Amino acid sequence: MMSPRDQRALRMGIAAVALALLSLRVVPWAVRSASAERDRLHAGRALLLQARGELRAAARFQDSAAAIRQALDSIAAQVLSGGNEAEAWSDFENRVSLAATRNGAALKRSTRLPDSARSGLLRRITGRAELESDLPGILAALKAIERDPVVLRVGELRVEAVNPASQRGPEVLRAELVVEGWFLLGPKGGKEQ
Amino acid sequence: MKPLILHIGRTSLRAELPGRRWSAVAEYRCAEDLSEVVAQLVEEIPGRSRGREVLLQVEPPLAQVRRLRDLPEVGSKDLRSLIAIQSGQFFRKNGHPLITDAVWLRKRGAAREALAAAVEEPLVEALMAASADVGLHVSRASPAGPGGLSKLSLMPAGARVVRNAAARAGLRRLAMATLAVWVLVGTCYPILLRRELRRVESQRSALSGAVEALSGLRREVRQAQQMLDVMAEANRGRGRAFLLSALLSSALPDSAYLESMQVRSDGSGLVAGRAARAGDVLASLSKLDAIVAPRPEGSILRESAAGRAWEGFTVRFGGSNP
Prior knowledge:
The structure holds 2 protein chains of 2 kinds.
Chain A lengths: L3 H53 L1 H18 L9 H17 L4 E8 L4 E2 L2 E12 L1 H12 L5 E10 L11 E12 L9
Antiparallel strand pairs in A: 1-3, 2-3, 3-5, 4-5
Chain B lengths: L3 E5 L3 E6 L4 E6 L6 H11 L8 E6 L5 E6 L6 H10 L1 H4 L7 E9 L6 E8 H13 L3 E7 L13 H80 L3 H12 L5 E8 L4 E7 L2 H9 L8 E2 L4 E5 L2 E10 L5
Parallel strand pairs in B: 1-4, 4-8
Antiparallel strand pairs in B: 1-2, 2-3, 5-7, 6-7, 9-10, 10-13, 11-13, 12-13
Helix pairs in contact in B: 1-4
């Protein structure tokens, strides 16, 4: 049988151990957990406020989005037809060839140049075209290319006389044009090379 | 409820309610009379008296107060024990047990001095019993007088024990209540926190569809804006190559002919050919605003062909490396 004094000492010991466990383990863990939960709550509230703010501003944003969509529709008329590079290149060649032949120039060769420029669904296509004609013919073809309803831009032009030493016969010039155009990638245009 | 102050003298008992400016006096002959006297006084108290607290002030000579010197330098608790044990040495006993108490006035040094008081225990107990009979509760008994006398307690030892036990029990109850409040707070806080977190999360998930749709729309609009910018930029550069080429070819003097020409959309380029006087070509090109900074390149080659003298020229314009 334990004496009352021993019992008291035992009770005190158990209380001390329980208190130490509480203050060194349980309470810090509880405080850390509560603190983490509170941080999560603050972050969640901030995100919720942000989401609400964004949704409040959505009506205003949708107006400007409609205007931009309308402007985007006008792009369709300014780009090459075709939803992939092959179709767009075909349209590109046709347009350059038509501009040359209609203005008395001969399209000798057209070569596609590598070009990786892109913006959203827009892809740039660049080609080198070699024309042969006299100066008025070259200039007229150049003018026709740059005034095409589709936006074709001549980035570089080199003109050389085919036979500069010859003083006789008609003037023959060879023009090399680097032309850029854009096309809109279609839904099935993802496999273009 | 304000406490009732009972002043007990050798033959009289005076009751006083300081807040109400009420007091009453009654005479008594011996401790046995106190029960009746207290009941009589209590009847005169205005308002409710039951449950009221009583502060007992024992007047001299019933309360014997002494200033004691030359006591051993002991702690406060030991001082009380010393006085209690040797009460007969310091106080008149008259054959009755005494209730004593003492406090140090000056504890240190040779001039240390203690204040001690004593009262006959049967008198105080009789008064406490009389008070209890009429529903009053004596919470404190001290010698009447000014200054440090109020620090002395003349409550019987049993009452002191009961009072201390009651104080400890009250303190324990207060500690338990405080602990319970903390446990309650510690339990409720995480629960409320979780509940609030769930509420916020559910509101966020309710909005997430609309927010994602809006983000997609924003992305699309941003992309569309970039596409519009690209097309606007492409449109801006159109026609420059034609314009420069046309200007160059028309600006050359009649006596000159072109051998080669390079034009870039950034406005730079190079023109080479032959002319009767190469200086005329440079002068003609310098007059055109669209031809920026025309400058001869290399030396002028002079030669004759078909009976005419020619000067070969190369003119560069625009950027430094066309």
